[in-house]
Design goal:
The structure is a homodimer. Chain A is of the alpha/beta class. Chain A contains 15 helices and 16 strands. In chain A, the strands form four sheets. Chain A has a seven-stranded parallel sheet with strand order 10-9-11-8-7-12-13, with helices on both faces. In chain A, strands 5-4-3-6 form a four-stranded parallel sheet, with helices on both faces. At the A-B interface, helix 10, helix 15, strand 13 and strand 16 of A face helix 10, helix 15, strand 13 and strand 16 of B.
């Protein structure tokens, strides 16, 4: 069979599985997830052995230490996958719940009921834990899933997927509910994202180039974020001590993630008071500062920021710094250069806060808090399948509800239309 | 300028307008809509004159009487557009409302707030009233709109759009909030649906071929339904008098629309009692019946249905008829041949009803009611911008809420992530 035929078959199998999954009770799905957790634990040595093969191939291919670290499955990381599965068991199943219900003057009872989406494709890079995390969230919401991991993690992903399939099978998980694309052929991604009528949604997770490739090839809906160019704006009304703590946290606590900040905008009236303290604090933390002329006039040790810097997602200990004349100028900057992910204002003045939250068109807009909270767990969603900067279907952190659709179930007593 | 440059400029103008629109109060938007209604009334003769030019060109091009009728703008139809605008004024503005709000253990207040989507493209065919209907719903929800009507209605659409722009301008509607693509170049559609980063959503409304063309070319999200192959299933537990009335209504009341039924499935235990009565009733209404072997054994005057008939959307007084052995067989038929739009079961048995509503994966699933109710007004949404058989963002009739997205507004007191 050709790759195309293989992928179409995989799609057909997923559709059949999704119909069977939709019939499972929450109790049954939890039994399945528990069996998967047990099987991951039982196959721990086999999973580590498979991972060791990926690691060895990665070393021979000259993978960077950072990438090798992302690829590694230690006992602690396997424990963490198992713990994640059990956390999903504890979450409320949204499928079947009534979102709303009303009665029309003619007596029709209209109910809006949550349903699974159907078949979801997940395309991801090196971290093998995504295999377990994404599959468990899909199964909990009765969605069949087609997983396509990075080739560097293929052995690890296969071992994890096989463990979950085997655990699920013991509790009557419909066959083909979890499928992993086992070829390293890059064309498989294109085939997957063009399976119209079979795949209902694709979620790419990884670097910007992976996501752009998926979006360009896709014929099915895609939910994604390309990147996180997040900002903290320090207003003239800011509590500057609070601003310092938030900037430090948002930049340094984990600089390589999408909700870390890449830029600080400071109101000109507090720039002289704020920037030297910020520079001292961040320089001690090994952050490289790149400022505009006004910022460098106050802190001459800053490098000069270029126009490209304002667009950049560093994912590193680098921070762009700009002095602005007003909250409106800050909003303009964020609108032009930002990625509509997460942006925060530090301000005590209520009107300024409101202007910022109303006009900044980002998935998450913060007042007096770190952007690092844009995360399913931190929002209290219990889990996260991804973060969306799209405006349709789901925006911001996506949990279980965002993996559902709805249908109208309309109950009548013989009503016909006049 | 090239067509491409023209469309990019239109997109940029729409983005700027959408930002200004997002700042308008509900009161201001209602003043704008009222001024538009007044202007449509004031320009009634100019609109009819423009329409007369379209009608004349249509006659010369040999347009069918049915298409010419869809194109015609009578005084009654202009009144109806104006009434429609005033109905939209009366609806509640969803933008800015809080969908939900919760407080995290660390004190963060997380609010999910409705926002406009941004820029919406509407691609439609001959009926010029869509220009007013779609634009008014977009303005009410603070979305900028780019309209692309059919070339046969160009003069009418231009006259309506100009009236709405002029009315809006009197009440400070941001410039470029409503734009109409004034070229008949077919490539304009392709350019429009590839305006990534400028157009947030495209909704094609029209025949299946138009919609397929849009989906194939699109780089931006599209919400649509291709067609409506809707079913009534008459169960063995059905009240057969009720079933007759519902089948008649769903087939005959307006056969050319997407929520009319194209097929009736009848349980074998009631086929002998039901089908002759149904055939008498529908034949008197000039409906052509096309049955499977079992149906024709009971009503020999039926034509023979082919495999293609089960997939067909006739949009005409034709009905496919099949005898099935169980509700499960009916569900299988609907899953295989249906379009996931609207399907109804006529049954008194509660368990059978529940099985049908759970397993039929359509935007609207009915019990003992006509499928003709799948409509924004009939559902009580107040208005309708379209009907979706997609599973993402919106499913079924789409009203004002479905023209919104949301963002998270998170209020803190200095929280940083541990």
């Amino acid at each position: 069979m050709s790759l195309h035929d293989d992928m179409v078959l995989m799609g057909d199998q997923a559709v059949a599985a999704s119909r069977a999954l939709a019939r499972l009770s929450s109790r049954r799905k939890n039994l399945i997830l528990e069996a998967m957790a047990e099987e991951l634990n039982a196959r721990r040595e086999a999973i580590k052995a498979a991972n060791a093969r990926d690691m060895e191939a990665g070393r021979q291919a000259g993978m960077s230490p950072a990438l090798l670290d992302r690829l590694l499955l230690s006992d602690a990381r396997i424990d963490s996958m198992i713990k994640g599965l059990r956390a999903v068991i504890g979450l409320k199943d949204p499928v079947g719940t009534k979102i709303s219900r009303w009665i029309r003057p003619n007596g029709l009872v209209i109910q809006k009921v949550r349903t699974p989406i159907g078949v979801i494709g997940i395309i991801y890079e090196s971290r093998p834990n995504v295999t377990a995390d994404a599959a468990s969230l899909c199964i909990k919401t009765s969605n069949a899933v087609i997983l396509r991991g990075g080739k560097e993690a293929m052995q690890s992903n296969l071992a994890i997927a096989e463990a979950m399939q085997a655990g699920g099978a013991r509790k009557d998980l419909p066959e083909h509910s979890i499928q992993l694309v086992a070829t390293t052929d890059r064309d498989a991604v294109r085939e997957l994202v063009q399976l119209e009528g079979r795949v209902d949604l694709v979620m790419p997770r990884g670097g910007e180039s992976l996501i752009r490739a998926v979006v360009e090839q896709a014929r099915v809906p895609v939910i994604k974020h390309f990147k996180g160019v997040c900002h903290v704006y320090v207003d003239e009304s800011a509590n500057l001590d609070m601003a310092l703590k938030i900037v430090e946290n948002a930049k340094c606590q984990r600089p390589g993630v999408c909700n870390a900040i890449e830029k600080v905008l400071v109101h000109e009236k507090v720039a002289t008071a704020f920037l030297p303290k910020m520079a001292d604090l961040l320089t001690a933390k090994k952050v490289e500062l790149r400022g505009d002329a006004a910022a460098r006039a106050i802190v001459p040790s800053m490098k000069e920021a270029t126009e490209e810097d304002w667009y950049a997602e560093y994912l590193d200990l680098i921070l762009g710094v700009r002095v602005v004349s007003s909250v409106q100028a800050a909003i303009e900057h964020i609108t032009k250069y930002g990625s509509h992910h997460s942006d925060s204002i530090i301000a005590e003045d209520k009107k300024t806060q409101d202007l910022f939250t109303e006009e900044v068109d980002s998935a998450a807009v913060y007042v007096n808090a770190s952007t690092r909270f844009t995360d399913g767990s931190e929002f209290g969603l219990g889990a996260e399948i991804g973060i969306s900067t799209d405006k349709l279907h789901a925006r911001g952190p996506m949990g279980l509800e965002e993996l559902t659709s709805y249908k109208y179930v309309v109950l009548g007593t013989g009503q016909v239309r006049e």
